[in-house]
Write a structure and sequence with these properties.
single chain; 13-stranded mixed β-sheet; mainly beta
């Protein structure tokens, strides 16, 4: 994946050089058709329109993580935005709204945003922050996943793509998740999702979705957890 400079507005602590690592479990949905063309091309393809934009809702929880001395384990966050048409050619994305739960401390939010600048190597034209409780759950059988912002600004419903064996997830392996240190295969889902707030509004039906586990670390090593893959 291409490497670009980073810009997140209003977050001066991002320049701090401290050791960091995070293991993240994602519920993701975007406006492309299944599966993301971004991973194989230099642009997105907005569902059914041919427009090179990507409106998304990425919802994650940190199963293990630290930024310096700040413990990030248990933090949940929600990223909504639009990659725009130039992220793959110029490293320039359109806008981002990052929502954290009220219980997240300023240090946790700053640390997590610093790590996210490493995972998503683009410049954003506009970055805004928000606060809301976040529902995040994957069904025990893995067939559905669900996320919702308590403030009503966003919701994601995933229904697993049915492959030749309906008891197993259809997956794409050996594809890197942006600039992550490591990631699991992408488990494929169709999505129904929306976001509204901060002057933005979009709603998608039967669009792209997936679940994935992602790791990122300052030393390039796997994140050590009690449970190993």
């Amino acid at each position: 994946m291409r490497k670009f400079a980073f810009l997140l507005l209003g977050l001066p602590l991002l320049a701090q050089d401290v050791p960091w690592q995070a293991r993240l479990e994602y519920i993701e949905a975007c406006s492309c058709d299944l599966f993301c063309p971004c991973y194989f091309n230099d642009h997105a393809s907005h569902q059914g329109t041919g427009a090179h934009s990507c409106t998304f809702n990425n919802v994650a929880r940190v199963t293990a993580g630290k930024h310096g001395d700040v413990d990030l384990t248990g933090v949940k966050f929600w990223l909504s935005g639009d990659l725009g048409s130039d992220w793959g050619t110029k490293g320039q994305a359109d806008w981002l709204v990052a929502t954290f739960e009220p219980k997240a401390t300023k240090e946790q939010k700053d640390g997590m945003m610093a790590i996210l600048t490493k995972i998503y190597p683009v410049k954003w034209n506009d970055v805004q922050m928000d606060t809301s409780d976040i529902t995040w759950k994957i069904a025990p059988d893995g067939k559905t996943a669900y996320a919702k912002l308590a403030n009503g600004n966003g919701e994601v419903k995933l229904t697993r793509f049915t492959g030749s064996d309906p008891a197993k997830a259809a997956q794409i392996a050996n594809v890197r998740y942006f600039a992550a240190t490591w990631n699991s295969p992408f488990a494929l889902y169709h999505s129904d999702h929306y976001f509204k707030g901060h002057g933005k509004s979009y709603q998608l039906h039967h669009a792209n979705g997936f679940t994935i586990t992602v790791e990122s670390s300052s030393d390039g090593k796997r994140v050590v957890t009690k449970k190993t893959d």
